[in-house]
Amino acid sequence: MSRVSVTVTVAVSFLALFISLVTVSCDVIKLPSQASKFFRTTKHNDDGDSSAGTKWAVLVAGSSGYWNYRHQADVCHAYQLLRKGGLKEENIIVFMYDDIAKNKENPRPGIIINSPNGNDVYNGVPKDYTGDDVNVDNLFAVILANKTALKGGSGKVVDSGPDDHIFIYYSDHGGPGVLGMPTSPHLYANDLIDILKKKHASGTYKSLVFYLEACESGSIFEGLLPEGLNIYATTASNAEESSWGTYCPGDDSSPPKEYETCLGDLYSVSWMEDSDQHNLQTESLHQQYELVKKRTAGSNTSYGSHVMEFGDIGLSKEMLVLYMGTNPDNENYTFVDKNSLRPPSRVTNQRDADLVHFWDKYQKAPEGSARKAEAQKQVLEAMSHRLHIDNSFLMIGKLLFGISEGPLVLNKVRPSGKPLVDDWDCLKTLVRAYERHCGSLSQYGIKHMRSIANICNAGIQVEQMEEAAMQACPTIPAGPWSSLHRGFSA
């Protein structure tokens, strides 16, 4: 038999084998699990995933306090997702204050859930960096694999190589140009970008993906993250809007009645619930971005945020498996564009989630009980702090720029593509000047970071800011939200 005849015979036999393997469902040809693995041509690492290098992940919950339950729930859920996807525990580094699972307010001690009917996501999550070890310095040391700079914690770092893929997920409160931390100072956008540039310069990754949940999260990358670093970032909101909590008391998908807090964040649960269901070998970053954007935008005009993308957008064509692995149970869930999860009809502004918790606690507490009195006190303290912050900035603006011009200057938004501020050192200096006289900005007050940036951009010197803050705030309020015992925000 000639070589040509043998080749044809083999080809025909191979085609017959292929036809016998495939199944037809809903007018779409699908490969069974074993067949799809057979025809896969990409390289595999020792985890069996489509990748030439090791997968690394850094998961950060940047808050503390039971009213911020959702941030640690988000991060714990992300950990479980990555473990099911095949990432090794030693390659996943978790930052969370760890004051939720065993909190006296938690109706299920030792358990954290991320959705109303969700399973426990806390079990097995490593305690890499908890309590006051959740801080900016340790986060930067972990990303740069600088073990000598670490203080406390497990000592795990992103000890990656040039062929590796890194996934960073951060869930917390934010403000223009800043991300919250349970310790002081907060994380400022320019410092984060500098660390990412250093990581790139070290040649210790092939590509890096950053998912960010926070209010005004687009401002962290807007005009700051350049192309060419092999970094793709998506954010829950643009540079000037809130992100949203979900599964909150009173929402259309409320938590179990014994819970008095939001269980998750809309952007975060959107990408995780999508990843929980689908085959991430066949879903790209871009496909997930589109699905998450649609769900996070909301179903009406009363809420919603604009999910954004920054950096090397071309990386979004890559499959999610490169960064998150994939659950083998989802092998046949391929056609993701037809599986968008339904947007909720009601969610909670991130900045109001603490009030939702205190108010729900107040309503459910028995009349005359110590718990009801405590909840009432918490509501009043939070509202008093908000009024103090808002009024002090309004007064500072008027003192610096005049009664009519003050509000205009403080609320000015720079054109798209421009960073928040020209001089980040000025921003941090004026934050400290404000807090010296008016008290802590706290998780609510960082919404005014744009005002401080605009004061810097207008050329105001620190001495002028000190004088204005002194006049606006004769004393620092005594409430816990204004306390500076945790240090300055900058």
From TrEMBL:
Q: Which InterPro entries match?
A: AE, Legum_prodom, Legumain_prodom_sf, Peptidase_C13
GO cellular component terms attached to this protein's record: vacuole
Concerning Gene3D superfamilies, the annotation shows: 1.10.132.130, 3.40.50.1460
Q: What residues does the Legumain prodomain domain cover?
A: 377-473
Which keywords does the record carry?
A: Disulfide bond, Glycoprotein, Hydrolase, Protease, Signal, Thiol protease, Vacuole
Q: Name one GO biological process term.
A: vacuolar protein processing
Pfam families, per database record:
Legum_prodom (PF20985), Peptidase_C13 (PF01650)
- Molecular function in Gene Ontology: cysteine-type endopeptidase activity
Q: Which PROSITE patterns match?
A: PROKAR_LIPOPROTEIN
According to its UniProt record, the EC number is: 3.4.22.34
Q: Which reaction does it catalyse?
A: Hydrolysis of proteins and small molecule substrates at -Asn-|-Xaa- bonds
Subcellular location per the Swiss-Prot or TrEMBL entry:
Vacuole
Q: What is its main location?
A: other
User: Which residues does the entry assign to the active site, renumbered to this chain?
Assistant: H173, C215
The record's section on PANTHER family has: HEMOGLOBINASE FAMILY MEMBER, VACUOLAR-PROCESSING ENZYME ALPHA-ISOZYME
Family label: Belongs to the peptidase C13 family.
This chain belongs to the protein called legumain
Instruction: Please report the organism this UniProt entry assigns to the protein.
Output: Eutrema salsugineum (Saltwater cress)
